[in-house]
Amino acid sequence: MNNTHLEELREERDLTKKEVAQKLKVSASIYGRWEKGNADIPTKRIIQLSNFFNVNIDYLLGLTNKRYESQYNTLLNRKLISKRCREIRDDYKESLRIFAKRFNTTSSTWSAYEKNKTLILGSFLLNICRTGNYSAEWILGISNIKKTNFFHY
To answer: Considering the entire predicted model, what is its pTM?
Structure first.
């Protein structure tokens, strides 16, 4: 099921999937899978897509209907992202093991996000946002607005 606004944004600009894919330097098939929701969008690609379409990330990902023009720095503050990953777990008041199980991952994976050993995957980012009503822009250190009024499909 497609939960993003990618198709709508592409069609507004009268572009083909192939044209968008070429601009992003990815295959047309992988872009098509992102658009249809059949593949997870990597976190760095989420930023690129948002910049390409000049829209806020939360709108792009279908987390809100509030749309505004936006351009983001592609150099993410990974230290802040890891801090916010820890803050999310603290909000749940759960141990690392229980929290990881809640989101169908391993303790070591979530620990790596919290300790800035790896950038949060796009699939986890989206899942956390949808489950806890967090702003993806907040998690990625782009905004200080932690939660917003989300539009759920």
So the answer is: 0.91
